[in-house]
Structures are given as structure tokens and as C-alpha cells.
Write a structure and sequence with these properties.
Distance between the termini: 44 Å
Number of domains: 1
CATH class: Alpha Beta
Shape: globular
Number of strands: 10
Oligomer: single chain
Strand order of the largest sheet: 5-9-8-6-10
CATH superfamily: Nucleoside phosphorylase domain
Largest sheet: 5 strands, mixed, barrel
Number of helices: 7
Helix content: 25-40%
Radius of gyration: 18 Å
CATH architecture: 3-Layer(aba) Sandwich
Length: about 270
């Protein structure tokens, strides 16, 4: 069986589609892209922050859904802001489509399950490596158990968290594409080997951005707890503790602003 191949794919990313008739090849987007998995948080930003001047660029089209892509302006920094695809194939396709239009730095954030019950609900987690318990990343870089995450920008993001007076946890994440096969045996293995959380996209983001030669940063806010006799949902529902979650997009925007300032100095 061949998973990783150095040859070019037979199909190339198709890019963003326009609702106004604009040709795909004429669509240019801001270089810094922020993707959020929660449609609640996405809609909250678009609906309640007109000062960010949200302007729809187009949409990412898949066989059974369309996801909107917007341009916003945060403190003078133009940002591509969109609803990120959940799971390996979708997030890999997103990155390819957005790179086609000029994206060079990706910031992703979303909910995760925790493998340590001491991690507070809704608190921030910065992953440093990911266990590749999924299939998509294997097609972008050679096979390995672990992949590095966030090789850049951790100090900058920690400075953002400090400015918001927010604590955080660092550690490995377990990226899986089989959410109903998160067993006690697997939980115990990954926890014993440095895992603090579980989610579905981080290892793919790292592999695919490396494949395209672009930068990434991904972080999580803690949700359900797997470190218990019985699974605890905690705040996994998107609207649970929403008042607390409303702040999280602005952590990503602040990081984007910092990266924009850094790039202007270079």
C-alpha cells in the first residue's frame, strides 16, 4: 500500500467560489487566515462586530455544504475569516483552496476533549506535538507517530494570553478521525505519553501547511472530559458557557495582528 507519494496529485485545489460572479482566479484574500470550527462563534463575530467590517469574499464548496469566507479588519490588520472544515479531509482541502488565493499564515482554534481532568473547562490549550491517529496527514508527509505543532508563534500567543490574564496548558494532542473509538485503552496510552487533549485536525494542519510551505498556529479551548470513569460532556455543546467562549476569537485576532506587525518589520 502506498500512502505518501512525492508526485503531484491528479486533482488540484479548486479554490474559493464567488456569489457575485467573480472568477475564482481573480479572488485575492488576506495572507493571514483565521479558521474557527464553531458556527456559533463565527456567526457571533459576523453579526455583532460591524466595526470589523466583515465583507464576504465567497465560499468554500463541498459536495453537501457551503462554508462562507469573509474578510475582516482587526486593528488595521486584514484577516481572512471563515468556518473551518471539521476532520482531516475537509481541513486539508480548505488549506489547499486558501493557499491558492494567497494565504500564507493559518490560525485555527476550536474545542477539544481533555485527557486530564485537572484542565479547567473552557481553558486554553497550546499543543506542541500531535499523535497522528488519522489518515489524511499520511498523504502529505511520510509516516511517523508524532508531528511537531506550532514551531513558530508560541511566545507571541503566550503574550496575548498574558494580556488577557488567561492561564493555559501546553502538551501533546491526540488527533483522531474516529471520535466514537476513543477508548479507555487509547486514552491511557496517549495520556501516559504526554497527551493532554484529543481533537480531529491538528496533525493534519501541521502536515498540510508543511506540504504547502506556509505557517500555522493552532490552539484549543477545553471541552469534554475523557479523564473520568464516565465521559463528561462539560461545555462541549457550542452554546454552553457561550459568554466565556465569546472572548476566544479575539485571542486569534490579536495573534494575527501581532504577526502582521512582525511581517511589516521584516
Amino acid at each position: 500500500m502506498i500512502r505518501y507519494s512525492e508526485q503531484q496529485g491528479l486533482i488540484s485545489p479548486s479554490g474559493i467560489k464567488s456569489r457575485t460572479g467573480k472568477k475564482t482566479e481573480d479572488i485575492v484574500i488576506p495572507e493571514i487566515c483565521v479558521g474557527v470550527y464553531s458556527h456559533h462563534l463565527f456567526e457571533y463575530i459576523i453579526d455583532y462586530y460591524p466595526d470589523l467590517r466583515p465583507t464576504q469574499i465567497g465560499y468554500i464548496n463541498t459536495a453537501n455544504c457551503e462554508r462562507d469566507v469573509y474578510k475582516i479588519n482587526f486593528k488595521g490588520t486584514p484577516i481572512t475569516f471563515y468556518i473551518a472544515g471539521i476532520g482531516g479531509p475537509l481541513i486539508a482541502g480548505d488549506i489547499g483552496d486558501l493557499v491558492k488565493h494567497g494565504a500564507k499564515k493559518f490560525i485555527y482554534f476550536g474545542n477539544c476533549g481533555v485527557l486530564d481532568s485537572n484542565i479547567e473547562d473552557c481553558s486554553i490549550i497550546i499543543p506542541t506535538k500531535a499523535f497522528r491517529d488519522e489518515g489524511t496527514s499520511q498523504h502529505y508527509i511520510p509516516d511517523s507517530e508524532l508531528i511537531d505543532l506550532n514551531p513558530k508563534y508560541i511566545p507571541e500567543f503566550e503574550a496575548v494570553l498574558d494580556s488577557f490574564k488567561m492561564n493555559h496548558t501546553k502538551g501533546y494532542t491526540w488527533t483522531t478521525d474516529a471520535i466514537y473509538r476513543e477508548t479507555e485503552e487509547k486514552r491511557d496510552y496517549y495520556k501516559a505519553n504526554g497527551g493532554v487533549c484529543v481533537e480531529m485536525e491538528a496533525s493534519i494542519i501541521s502536515a498540510v501547511t508543511k506540504f504547502y510551505g506556509v505557517d500555522h498556529f493552532t490552539f484549543f479551548y477545553a471541552g469534554d472530559n475523557l479523564d473520568a470513569v464516565e465521559w463528561e460532556a462539560r461545555s462541549i455543546n457550542g452554546l454552553t458557557k457561550f459568554e466565556q467562549k465569546k472572548l476566544i476569537p479575539f485571542l486569534a485576532f490579536e495573534l494575527a495582528h501581532k504577526l502582521d506587525i512582525m511581517s511589516r518589520r521584516d
